[in-house]
Amino acid sequence: MNHSAHYSTQNHWRREATSLPSWLKRPIGKASQLSTVQQIIKQRNIHTICEEGRCPNRGECYSNGTATFLLMGQTCTRACAFCQVEKGHAPMILDPDEPQKVADAVQLLGLRYVVLTSVARDDLDDGGAAWFVRVMTAIRQENPQTQIEVLTPDFWSGKSAVTNQSQRVATVVTAKPACYNHNLETVARLQDPVRRGAKYDRSLNVLRCVKEIDSSIPTKSGLMLGLGETEAEVIQTLKDLRQIKCDRLTLGQYMRPSLAHLPVAKYWTPDEFTRLGKIAQDLGFSHVRSAPLVRSSYHAGED
């Protein structure tokens, strides 16, 4: 790209980033509080989805001394068109010290509720299911009172049967997380362009398996709005989730991380989010968070 084209692209991005609706703009939080969490994370060479995914709430969460840990490195084997996380296909070595590093960070931050998520690791035999358990075990040894929510990938490597996917989910479920989260991200019609390598039914099967293995564990899923979905499609997705007994729901606005990602088709208003949240409650979800800046881990411990 020549200099003038690069300048034009940067100009375009600045205009797009600064023209957000007023309800999507928020303060980043106190610099000193942000720095404390960032130092703890960086000193241990561990990762958070807050930073890797450029979450709009990271200022608020850091100010409250919380973070969602991103396990198994910062390179994902999928190439979802909405996500800022780095992509790659070469096998990546797991850091054997990561479980202890995360446990130490949880202790230093004084967390009582932790969310563990990960990049997709299709290069691993079990997709990383056992690694979730290793990190959970390390956290509990150092912080026995801390509750742990997991936000897992679909554990589907493209060469696995449904039974293998179920076995991988079972590995995590038997470690008894406080909540098992897996995001559908979008409606059925938009899965292919938005979630490359993922499938709507595969994701529903993750949440179905959790309930079949241990019905006492709450399940949770989330959608990003603004990718071109209709309200009727969103409502149908909520019904599909309730049919497999999904308990908790998050609805938030998709915000384009860069010009290389999918454009925003629509900015849903706060009133529209409120209406969808009420529909979700009427459908029987026990906990619903529906607002433009809601993300899957936002205020998770309050559920």
Could you characterize the architecture of this molecule?
It is a single chain. This protein is an alpha/beta fold. The chain is 40% helix and 14% strand. It has helices at residues 3-18, 31-43, 49-52, 58-63, 98-109, 129-142, 162-173, 191-194, 200-213, 231-243, 270-283, and strands spanning 47-48, 68-71, 75-76, 86-87, 113-118, 147-151, 179-181, 219-225, 248-253, 287-290. The chain has an eight-stranded mixed β-sheet. Helix 5 (98-109) packs across helix 6, helix 6 (129-142) packs parallel to helix 7 (162-173) and helix 7 (162-173) crosses helix 9. The N and C termini lie far apart (48 Å).
Rounded average pLDDT: 83
Rg, nearest Å: 19 Å
Quote the distance from N terminus to C terminus.
48 Å
For the record, the count of structural domains works out to 1
- CATH fold-level assignment: TIM Barrel
Instruction: Please report which band the strand proportion falls in: under 5%, 5-15%, 15-25%, 25-35%, 35-45% or over 45%.
Output: 5-15%
CATH superfamily: Aldolase class I
Helix content bin: 40-55%
Number of DSSP strand runs: 10
| CATH class call | Alpha Beta
**Name given to the CATH architecture:** Alpha-Beta Barrel
| Series of H and E elements | HHEHHEEEHEHEHEHHEHEHE
Order of the strands making up the biggest sheet: 1-2-5-6-7-8-9-10
Name the structural class: alpha/beta
